């Protein structure tokens, strides 16, 4: 018994002696396992002063013998940790490394895909330094809660960065926290049209699961790292002070890394940008109301509206995603320009003249409905809040002007509309033909429900070809050039179109979008082919069905997605007016537009919201005697609070560190 007692006392003594390095169990490895168990159990291993229990104030870390700071206080390692202490140690350290990597990656992650480079992650995140300093000065009871909140917020900001990536890919701008939520409904509808309802549901569930998982992982990662920081508070303080000094020095000197400053503040910049964005979004409602209050044509008597077009059948045709790059980008322009030149020649052979210029769209990549609204209303509609406000008002649109005269029947051919479309009433259209009313019996071509040639054939059958009718004003949306641009229909004889059943065979002969989208070069080729098809459809229609009273206004709604044109491309779109009556063309002779269907590089560039007033002036009683501003540059908004538009882009400048600029404050 004395021997047993002596042995037990010796064992405790060895455990408490730093030179011996032994633990209660007699193994130098089980203490880390026990500490890890305490970590996993959530046991607070720090004192109220922010240092490990048993660590002396001088930071030597030697526990008092048998005191409260000894390893006797930690819960005994249980389960697999006790059985495999070495493995438990590796798991602990590995988990810590993964947590640190996740936090650093989240802090340094850019919000644009084209900025995802190795150099973007070889930087010092200032947010991490300030975060550690903040935890160290907090009261002991608040530290764990603060770490959890910080982790969850970091997770939310990381989700926002991923959303931004998607917006930059399709809209060439970041997500707007105030105005863009409704676009998720449109994205879900697009997904459902592309992969079916079941596929869309699975995709949405998958995204929700990934978002929740990311939030949980970032919260746990920050909590784990915070426990380590607080267990070694003295070392953490010295390290934070050193890194903070280094960071401020690098930031002051703007020391560059791989094209970006080494001292990073991406996440802080993102937060600052969104705070400003929310304020701008809330203010924009008042700004828009002020802009919409003025309309010089609202009170115009019917007999003074559009007098230069009386008796004409006027078609406003929007070609989806038809942008400036289709004409000027060398990877796509050769085929498109040949189609435009051929179209001009064929139209001239049929007695038609054409002139072309440029308009700057309020959107890019997507948001066609906002471009349509801008063109028709004469107001700059670049977000969903403005669109909803506009379409719930009685704004005097270009289409309403035709209707007010009483001399035109107004119609809309909307093949992309697959359900009720209440906006038709706002636009002042007597009747809207959506994809369900055109009698189409053929297949969808990816997103596009109806091929363009069938849309024009239906227009001729349902409206234009009728006898003893009034003149027509028709808004036609051609959807074939909507992404993903595969498979594509092809031109056939107009007498072959029928009810569209012929397109089943044509679709089978087309390309698989999955094959096309593996190669960006192929995507650009198919996009260009879709534009050629849409323009060929219109010129062929005019050749066959056009007459002396036909007037066509054809334009693009916006540039295609950045996959095709890259980020920060121009927002310009071509616009052409085609007519056989030279009196119609003479009305726009002072616009200085280029002859034919292709605008020149030096042709005037007007903001899309300015076209309505120019058009109504040119075809009003004064007959275009009022000179337009032909500077060739988009007009700039006033200082009413709306963001200034850069030259020829239609885009608002981005604040520093929003993902559009580097950390130095200089634009890339």
Automatic annotation (TrEMBL):
Species the sequence originates in: Streptomyces ovatisporus
Transmembrane annotation, as ranges: 87-108, 120-138, 145-163, 200-223, 235-255
Keywords assigned: Membrane, Transmembrane, Transmembrane helix
Protein's recorded name: Sulfatase
Biased composition range(s): Basic and acidic residues: 624-668
Region described as Disordered: 1-77, 617-668
InterPro entries given in the database record: Alkaline_phosphatase_core_sf
């Amino acid at each position: 018994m004395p021997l047993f007692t002596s042995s037990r006392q010796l064992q405790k003594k060895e455990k408490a002696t730093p030179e011996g390095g032994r633990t209660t169990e007699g193994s130098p490895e089980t203490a880390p396992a026990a500490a890890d168990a305490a970590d996993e159990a959530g046991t607070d291993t720090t004192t109220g002063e922010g240092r490990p229990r048993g660590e002396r104030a001088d930071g030597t870390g030697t526990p008092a013998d048998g005191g409260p700071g000894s390893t006797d206080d930690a819960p005994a390692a249980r389960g697999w940790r006790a059985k495999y202490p070495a493995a438990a140690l590796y798991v602990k350290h590995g988990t810590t490394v993964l947590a640190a990597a996740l936090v650093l990656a989240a802090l340094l992650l850019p919000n644009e895909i084209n900025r995802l480079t190795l150099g973007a992650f070889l930087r010092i995140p200032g947010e991490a330094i300030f975060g550690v300093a903040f935890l160290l000065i907090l009261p002991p009871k608040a530290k764990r809660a603060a770490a959890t909140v910080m982790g969850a917020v970091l997770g939310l900001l990381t989700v926002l960065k991923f959303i931004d990536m998607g917006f930059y890919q399709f809209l060439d701008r970041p997500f707007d926290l105030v105005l863009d939520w409704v676009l998720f409904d449109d994205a879900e509808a697009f997904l459902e049209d592309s992969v079916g309802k079941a596929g869309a549901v699975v995709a949405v569930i998958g995204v929700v699961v990934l978002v929740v998982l990311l939030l949980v992982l970032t919260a746990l990662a920050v909590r784990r790292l915070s426990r380590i920081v607080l267990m070694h508070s003295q070392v953490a303080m010295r390290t934070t002070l050193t890194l903070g000094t280094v960071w401020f020095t690098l930031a002051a000197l703007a020391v560059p890394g791989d094209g970006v400053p080494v001292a990073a503040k991406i996440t802080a910049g993102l937060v600052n940008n969104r705070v400003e964005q929310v304020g701008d979004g809330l203010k924009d409602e008042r700004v828009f109301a002020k802009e919409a209050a003025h309309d010089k044509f609202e009170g115009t008597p019917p007999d003074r509206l559009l007098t230069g077009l009386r008796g004409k059948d006027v078609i406003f045709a929007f070609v989806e995603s038809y942008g400036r790059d289709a004409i000027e980008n060398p990877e796509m322009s050769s085929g498109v320009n040949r189609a435009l030149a051929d179209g001009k020649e064929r139209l001239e052979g049929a007695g038609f003249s054409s002139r072309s210029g440029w308009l700057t769209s309020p959107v890019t990549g997507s948001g066609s409905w906002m471009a349509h609204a801008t063109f028709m209303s004469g107001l700059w509609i670049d977000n969903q809040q403005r669109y909803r406000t506009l379409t719930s008002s009685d704004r005097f649109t270009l289409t309403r002007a035709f209707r007010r005269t009483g001399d035109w029947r107004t119609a809309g051919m909307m093949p992309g509309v697959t359900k009720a479309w209440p906006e038709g009433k706002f636009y002042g259209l007597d009747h809207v033909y959506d994809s369900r009313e055109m009698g189409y019996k053929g297949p969808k071509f990816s997103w596009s429900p109806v091929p363009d040639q069938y849309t024009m054939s239906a227009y001729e059958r349902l409206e234009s070809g009728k006898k003893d009718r009034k003149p027509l004003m028709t808004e036609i949306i051609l959807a074939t050039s909507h992404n993903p641009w595969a498979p594509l229909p092809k031109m056939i004889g107009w007498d072959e179109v029928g009810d569209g059943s012929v397109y089943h065979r044509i679709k089978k002969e087309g390309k698989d979008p999955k094959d096309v989208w593996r190669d960006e070069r192929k995507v650009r080729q198919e996009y260009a082919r879709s534009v050629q098809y849409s323009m060929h459809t219109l010129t062929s229609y005019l050749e066959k069905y056009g007459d002396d009273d036909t007037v066509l206004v054809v334009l693009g709604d916006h540039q295609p997605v950045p996959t095709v044109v890259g980020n920060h491309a121009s927002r310009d779109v071509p616009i052409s007016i085609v007519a056989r009556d030279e009196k119609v063309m003479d009305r726009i002779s002072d616009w200085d537009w280029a002859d034919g269907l292709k605008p020149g590089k030096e042709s005037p560039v007007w903001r899309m919201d300015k076209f309505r007033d120019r058009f109504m002036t040119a075809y009003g009683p004064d007959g275009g005697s009022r000179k337009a501003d032909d500077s060739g540059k988009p007009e700039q908004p006033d200082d009413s609070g709306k963001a200034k538009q850069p030259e020829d882009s239609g885009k608002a400048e981005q604040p520093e560190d929003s993902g559009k600029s580097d950390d130095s404050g200089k634009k890339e």
